[in-house]
Amino acid sequence: MSTPQATKKSTLPTDWHRADIVAALHKKGWSLRALSLQSNLGASTVKEALNRPYPKAERIIAAAIGVAPEEIWPERYAKRNFTPVLTLSSPNSSQPLQCAA
Hints:
The protein is an all-alpha fold. It has a domain at 18-80: lambda repressor-like DNA-binding domains (434 Repressor (Amino-terminal Domain), Orthogonal Bundle). Helix content is 39%, strand content 0%. The protein is elongated. It starts with 17 loop residues before the first helix and ends in a 21-residue tail after the last helix.
């Protein structure tokens, strides 16, 4: 009988839960609708940042709470700020190619 393998917990911070974001806004005296209207956006525009990446709305929410957007959505910003490291290599060699400058 096999034993189930323990899953590794990621050490990377996770995005805040949407209820935590709304609660933090309410503690500061804001609602998502009020933030949208104050920012001259449609009534439900800022709420879209809870469902999908929306940098402008993320900045509005973060400013109202008083933290950086990267703190609320670290996973989103890790993906946005990801820079791949590419190495050039020859298909027949294990040595990386060097570029002449």
